[in-house]
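Format notes (please read before filing issues)

Several people have asked whether sequences and structure tokens are stored in separate files. They are not. Every record keeps both together, in the order shown below: the sequence lines, then the token lines. Line labels are part of the format and must not be stripped during preprocessing.
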Amino acid sequence: MPKDTRPSRYDILFEPVRIGPKLAKNRFFQVPHCNGGGYRDPSAVVEMRRTKAEGGWGVIFTEQTEIHHTSEITPFIEQRLWDDRDIPALARMAEAMKSHGALAGIQMAYSGINGPNLYSREVPRAVSPGPILTFTADPVQARPLDRDGIRDLRRWYRKAFRRAQDAGFDIVCLYGAHGFGILQHFLSRATNRRSDEYGGSLENRARFVTELIEEAREETKGEMAISIRMSLHEDGPLGFSNAEVREFIEMKADLPDLWDLAQGTWDACSGTSRFKDEGAQEALVRGIKALTSKPVVGVGRFTSPDAMVRQVRQGILDFIGAARPSIADPFLPQKIEQGRFEDIRECIGCNICVSGDMTGAISRCTQNPTFMEEWRKGWHPERVAPRGKSDRVLIAGAGPAGLEAALVLGRRGYQVTLAEAGTTLGGRVARERALPGLSAWGRVADYRAGQIAPMPNVSVHYESRLSAAEVLDFGFQHVAVATGAVWRRDVVARHHLDAIPQAGLPVFTPDDLMAGQGPFGGTVLLYDDDHFYMGSVLAELLVARGCRVEFVTPAAKVAEWTENTLEQRLIQSRLMSLGVTLHLSQAPQAIGPGGARTVCTYTGQARDIAADAVVMVTSRVAADSLGPDLAARRADWAAAGITSVTVIGDADAPAPIAWAVYAGRRYGEELDGPDIGDALPFRREIAQRTE
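Then the structure lines:
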């Protein structure tokens, strides 16, 4: 679609912008973001970045790249530029980034007080001595950098600059944000307690940053652009506050070629949509552009083209920085350029992408199941293979798995019938989007429903709960069962593997509450053995209904898995502020009239909790028996013309929404594909000895 089909007010987003010696083709700037691939899966990362280049981004960055083995952050799997042997893999990445005219950037990191060195076993080195500040509270301390150590560090950076230039990168980003980079450690009084020329006054604390940028220009002969990534605010009486950030930028206004500004800690900068709105950092960044002649990039989970335009027109930002939105839709710039706003796959801010990095796994995205599968499986976010040898597919269930399968198969050219038992599309997403803080999650259903609607080869039928006999009568060649799952009404999950005495109190499930049922007032014991978001969200809902909530969990903290989505502290803080009583490391032993007896998961000591009702947030089971019923009648398939019956998504194995969307994508991609038997269904990197 030609660019003149878009309204002219968006033209400003496609103006070229100079960054030192380089010229970005537009204002779309994919800021550095992790992906769980790093040094372990370089080919997967290369193709992921190449896809963004194809999607029209003007600047594309790597993730955090460790410059030296004396500062590494195992167990997190990031990139490494430790010596010349790392150049070839990074050169492939730079080439991929530049394949469609984007500038290729590399973010360089020395983690200092955040680098435990669990792999290299080197003694950590930091601006000032102290315990390593990591997510996992590693029992390691760093020694302070003396003057020789600072000279070593500057030399290591110089070597990294040369290697990055040899690899073909256009921009070097010096990482000093989120509390992770040593540049921030020098600048912040919280981590810089030095009394020499590198400590004390702001001018002294800025000395290392100044030296480093000057040496970067010298080492690269001024041919690479140099940016610095900084936090806009650091909490605490000694933190590098927003006021001091502004003072520093005014003091060093023209030092870097670009100011890359992020909002405080990682969980503040990449907060979930439950806690952070689009453009949440605006108050912190507004006015900074007036302090410097150099361009400014900022983030804010931008998905609205109008919000982007406003930030540029009002002089808040020069570049629209994006990490998560670039994951959810790598083609975001191209779709805006072509005026295809209805085709934008908006980020829902769930942070499942972050969880891939936090768990040392490959990252995934709820909205974009092709993320990190571009090389491993050959998937593309905007293209699919043509239809195979068959043509008719029935999908039972229009939840996230069923909708994604219908979308992919429809694009491939199959005749798809989507049968939904209810009256709305989205399944669990349609119900969960109405819960406190989860409205953005509805985009999972909205995007797919909007894409399917104009497809003449996809028909949607509501109030169509199917039996096995009906499916056999229809004569479809392939059947996908995506009927979802329901929450259990008992305690069986991780802690309890069997039921407990349970009588005398009304017991509700998340499904009940989402259907508008459940307690309104009184004291409610909510038992959470799920440990993700659902228990805490329902606690908020119950408080809004006027209930007193007794929150019981066998874990030592509320919603402990949400450490991986950067929101656990926010969740627990919110529940405490709402007056929810927390019973940590407790599990119910029996439920009876008047309440429950719980026991400590460590000591076994019992206590009684009075309650008028119980809400169980434990585990889920398949919603209906269609899949098993069809399997039991396998002998009838051939006569009915059925080639395959496949259970997908939560109906197969309940999991987060991203898993269901992935299952739908996989079914849609692999239908009519070759039988690979026991072969690995994805590509992987194989380490081989070279010396």
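For reference, the curators noted about this record: The first helix runs from residue 42 to 54. The chain is about 30% helix and 20% strand.
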